[in-house]
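Review form for a predicted model. The reviewer records the input and the model, then writes brief findings.
Reviewer: anonymous (R2)
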Amino acid sequence: MVKNDDSDYKQYVVQRKSNAYWGIEEKVQLVLLGLSKQTAVTTLCRVNNVIPNQYYEWKELFIEGGKEGLLGKASRSQRELDCEKKVAVLERFIGELVLEKELSKKV
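Model under review:
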């Protein structure tokens, strides 16, 4: 009979600074361990007390973030484009407010 002992998996335990929440570096370390496929994700989650659904959510976010990083300097992410549009709208609004203020001073 094979003994399934978590002590065999100590190398897959992510050392956490706080038991209350997972920090970014800790999440990255866990996701990278899962991506390395050295052990099953279910085992990795069990020894780290993480629900597999949570792991897969972190993995998806990690991969999406990596895609944006690989876009390069020439192309911009959708978030950057949205922020630039918001900035343009706000700059125009500020300009209109300044103009109204100047006109009210003259009247």
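Findings: The chain has four helices and no strands.
Further findings: The chain has a mean pLDDT of 82.
Recommendation: see findings above.
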